[in-house]
Specification:
The structure holds two protein chains of two kinds. Chain A is an alpha/beta fold. Chain A has ten helices and ten strands. The chains are: A alpha/beta, B alpha/beta.
Chain lengths: 324, 234
């Protein structure tokens, strides 16, 4: 029997603010899991702390709501212990780039086959709207007494340079488009990074749904609003590394970095970069460390014999330390 | 479980006999098989049980879906702010300490060396053990009947047993490798007894047998001395 979207929902009361971008991201994620027909008990959604971190509670799958900034670290552990599980880490812009910046950075180097979705609304919404690491220098959202004194981190650029092999940006209220980005990220054999622009209707009075829709910008000819977000794929942009090798990768990363710097009246969303040629961490383990890793991953290993004593070959392990 | 070590224990290497692996049993607690899970619908990871421990599934098991959170949660693991549930969950979690205290044998909580009802009881933990034990006979030759209480478990703390040993001694001194005498504070917190004299060393070097002997004798002869700091070692 095919799994329906209802199979990925829980009956937990949702207390996100009305109009929050989180709703769009949650729906996109549930739609992606449905379309991929991933059995709920074979999926784990891992979060840190913040509004975004409540996401696992609304999804019927293993849900691990962890420590501030540590979604990635826990998710990596789950995936490496049991590579057969589909793991999606969700994190806010503060959680992912502030508190957990280190984890986010280094996950790129490992290229573990999992998907990381960053809920990017430029503010720390749960704690009343302080500037998050993605808010630009000199920008003043309503929760700030004075304009932001720090520069911003560009999540897409960071992911590209950190080594993520699938880097995309979605918009929370273009749910179908975002669903495809997440879905392809899950399919991608390596670390996928999906930055999601989202309004925070309570604390971000600048980057609102109306602002993204360009309602303040009238097209002089059609008198319609001119949306600020546009889709890369509609401009002939080609994110895919096709043959591999340093030269092609340099070109593709370079164009993606350049695109990631666009902001203001033209904000690109879609897939910035995908490189299928970098081996995943699981492949690296398999090829250079433990050839039976996938068939016998740590989570499936029997660690004790029937009588409770260790199943590990301790005698041969201890021989390593024997005096010669 | 957190293994607490001091620096000398952490940095030490020593030759040991082969471990007798038959004596070590792996106990993973109340884990559910896929078949057992199939009979529990809906499965509740944090179910209230008589013993206070909920049988567990692991991520990826069919039918074992649960949620973990660092916030307060209900029986399935979902976040909650319900005050009734909050109190019940606190009682469930903290009640495990009683189960632990009951299940762990006394020999894992503390060890006593030397003669009963000593003139001088030395209390300590970690790397100080060797230096204290090496001094028990010498102290006896100096006319001081000494005993050593090694405390092995800090939480849940074996308060009753520790108090009993301290009360059996004429005099008590504590030896620790940290500046403030952390175990001494813990003993006061858990038993109401404050050990009056502290020998401490915080150079990151282990306590040596000779310096400790001198210190113990000095403290035994001068009950007014509160604190001795050991400093030997390059």
């Amino acid at each position: 029997m095919a799994l329906k979207i209802a199979d990925y929902r829980t009956d937990v009361h949702n207390n996100w603010c009305p109009g929050c971008g989180d709703f769009g991201i949650l729906s996109a994620l549930q739609m992606a899991l449905t379309e991929l027909q991933i059995p709920p008990s074979n999926a784990a959604v891992v979060s840190g702390i913040g509004c975004s971190a409540k996401t696992p509670h609304y999804i019927n799958a293993y849900g691990i709501h962890t420590l501030h900034g540590r979604a990635i670290a826990f998710a990596e552990g789950i995936k490496l212990a049991n590579p057969g599980i589909e793991v999606v880490a969700v994190s806010g812009d503060g959680d992912a780039l502030g508190i957990g910046g280190n984890h986010t950075l280094h996950a790129g180097r490992r290229n573990i086959d999992m998907t990381f979705v960053v809920f990017d609304n430029f503010v720390y919404g749960l704690t009343k709207g302080q500037a998050s690491p993605t808010l630009g220098l000199g920008v003043k959202t309503k929760g700030l007494a004075k304009p932001n004194i720090q520069q911003d981190i560009n999540p897409v650029m960071l992911a590209l340079t950190a080594g993520y092999t699938y880097v995309a940006r979605g918009y929370a209220f273009d749910i179908r488009h975002l669903k495809d980005l997440i879905k392809n990220g899950i399919r991608h054999k390596g670390a996928a990074f999906v930055d999601v622009l989202q309004p925070c209707p309570t604390y971000n009075d600048l980057y609102t749904k109306e602002w993204y829709a360009g309602e303040d910008r009238e097209d002089p000819e059609t008198h319609k609003a001119m949306p600020r977000v546009y889709k890369l794929e509609e401009t002939g942009y080609d994110p895919l590394v096709k043959t591999g090798g340093l030269e092609e990768e340099t070109t593709k990363v370079g164009q993606a970095v350049a695109k990631s710097m666009e902001w203001g009246d033209h904000i690109p969303i879609g897939l910035f970069y995908q490189n299928p040629f970098v081996p995943s961490f699981e492949e690296r383990i398999e090829k250079t460390r433990v050839s039976a890793y996938r068939e016998a991953p740590p989570a499936k290993l029997k660690i004790a014999k029937e009588d409770g004593t260790t199943a590990a070959p301790m005698e041969s392990l201890m021989d390593i330390y024997k005096a010669v | 479980m957190i293994h607490l070590v001091d620096k000398a224990v952490a940095n030490a290497t020593s030759t040991v006999k082969r471990f007798d692996l038959a004596r070590v049993k792996i106990e993973r607690g109340e884990m559910l098989t896929d078949e057992q899970l199939a009979l529990r619908k809906p499965y509740k990871r944090f179910e209230f049980t008589e013993r206070g421990i909920s049988p567990r599934a692991v991520v990826g098991q069919p039918g074992g879906i649960f949620w973990n959170t660092g916030d307060e949660h209900d029986e399935t693991g979902h976040i909650t702010e319900d005050p009734y549930l909050r109190a019940k969950m606190m009682e469930k979690r903290m009640g495990k300490l009683d189960v632990i205290a009951k299940e762990i044998p006394l020999s894992e909580k503390l060890a006593y060396y030397g003669e009963p009802r000593p003139d001088l009881l030395v209390v300590g933990w970690g790397s100080v053990k060797g230096a204290v034990l090496d001094n028990l006979d010498t102290l006896k030759e100096s006319g001081i009947k000494a005993g050593f209480l090694q405390i092995k478990m800090m939480c849940p703390f074996p308060a009753g047993e520790v108090a009993k040993v301290i009360k059996s001694a004429q005099r008590t001194v504590i030896v620790e490798c940290n500046y403030s005498g952390q175990l001494r504070k813990l003993i006061t917190q858990e038993t109401g007894i404050t050990i009056p004299q502290l020998v401490t060393k915080y150079t990151g070097r282990p306590v040596l047998c000779d310096e400790l002997l001198e210190s113990l004798i000095r403290l035994y002869r001068a009950p007014n001395l509160k604190r001795e700091v050991l400093r030997v070692g390059a």
